[in-house]
Each structure stands twice: as C-alpha cells, then as structure tokens.
Design a protein that fits this description.
The protein has helices at residues 7-19, 24-35, 51-54, 59-62, 78-83, 85-88, 103-107, 112-129, 150-165, 199-213, and strands spanning 44-49, 67-70, 96-100, 134-138, 170-173, 180-181, 184-185. A hairpin with a 2-residue loop joins β6 and β7 (184-185). The strands form two sheets. A five-stranded parallel β-sheet has the order 2-1-3-4-5. A two-stranded antiparallel ribbon has the order 6-7. The longest helix has 18 residues, at 112-129. The chain is globular. It is α/β, with parallel strands linked by helices and 214 residues long. This is GDSL-type esterase/lipase family protein.
C-alpha cells in the first residue's frame, strides 16, 4: 500500500483519539442497536461515515442477501471515524467496508493532505485486523449547499481514486458524476437543506454501490 506516514502527524491523531468524546453517545446507540441483532457467524458488510450513510435507511432491504451494518454517524469527519474505527468497523469483522467521509472535512476547511493521511490510517487499521477485507471508498458527493466548494471536492476525489488504483484491496465508488448533468448538479436529488439526499438521490447511489456489493 503506497501511503505516506508522518510520525508527528499520527502521534497527534492518536492523542486526539484518546481524549475525544465527540459522537460518543451516538456511537454507543449504534453499538447497542447492532449488539442485539448482529450475528457474528454471518458475513457482514459495514457501511459507515457521515450523514449521507446514516440517512440511507433501507440499505439492508436493498441487499437482503447480506448482513448489513449501517454505522454512519451524522456530522462526522475522517478523524472522527478514525477515533471510532474499533467500535464502528472492526468489532463487526466485516468482509467489506464502505466508507463515506471527506464531505464534512472539506466544508470544515480541512487540508486535502490531512484528509488523505487520515484515510490511510483508517485503512491500515482495517487491514491489520484482516488483510483480505475489501474497502470501498465512496466519493464525496456534490450538493447544492456546498457547490461553491466543488473544485476542492473534485481534487479530493481524484486523489482518492488514485489511492484505490494503486491498491488491489481498495475500490473507488464514484457517485459524483452520476449526480451531475452537463456539469451541473441535479437539484431534484436533494431535500430542502440542499445537502442531504431524497429517495431519488439514494436510488442513484444504489445504481453505483450495488456493483461493489455483488
């Protein structure tokens, strides 16, 4: 895996992960939910990341052949997923992991290099548990509310795609292009806030994601 690791950078991350309490209550609720229904003996696919995953309520119904864990938590950034990788991914020993992060990072003015380095640590932690786990990075999506940041999203997606092309265990699920028409965003895919998707938006996501599930 071709990733650059920076000792100081990572040390800072691990210190933050030890002290962070962001999303603790939400993560606990997710764990409580799945502790009662998750069957360890069955192959598991984890979908995780920020609110675009959390609000995808019918993933299990869309993929009934598989045991799906939706551990998305709204408002999260890559550093938050790193802090809770054990709780939201590793404890379920998944065969595949779909990750949607980077959207809120860009909005929060995080540098692309920082975002990519955090992704690399998350990926490494997953691989340490099971090197055969397939990891699918879902591209940060376009949205009406954040369209003014489109150039930053495009650059991040190019980097994420390149990372996936350099590692056979990684895949890049491009949901960006399908949400555009003639380089303009399809506004009918969003609810009133202009950020989150409606059913039509998730139907488009399904048309892309299904190719990486089966």
């Amino acid at each position: 895996m071709r990733f650059l690791f920076f000792t100081i950078f990572l040390s800072g991350f691990f210190c933050q992960s030890q002290t962070s309490i962001r999303f603790k209550s939400e993560v606990n609720l997710i764990n409580q939910k799945y502790d009662s229904i998750w069957i360890p003996s069955q192959e598991t696919i984890v979908f995780t990341g920020s609110s675009s995953v959390r609000m995808w309520k019918d993933i299990q119904k869309l993929f009934p052949e598989y045991q799906i864990i939706n551990s998305g938590f709204g408002g999260s950034q890559t550093i938050d997923l790193l802090n809770y990788t054990d709780d939201l991914i590793l404890k379920y020993k998944p065969k595949k992991v779909f990750i949607y992060e980077g959207d809120n990072d860009i909005s929060d003015k995080k540098r692309r290099k920082e975002i990519l380095n955090t992704f690399s640590v998350i990926i490494s932690k997953i691989k340490e548990q099971n090197a055969s786990t397939q990891i699918i990075l879902i591209s940060p999506k376009p949205s009406i509310a954040r369209w003014h940041l489109k150039r930053k999203y495009i650059k991040l997606n190019k980097k994420l795609k390149k990372i996936c092309e350099e590692d056979d265990s990684l895949e890049f699920a491009n949901v960006w292009d399908i949400m555009l028409e003639n380089r303009k965003i399809k506004k009918e895919l969003f609810i009133k806030d202009g950020l989150h998707m409606n059913e039509a938006g998730y139907n488009l996501w399904y048309s892309v994601i299904k190719n990486y599930v089966y």
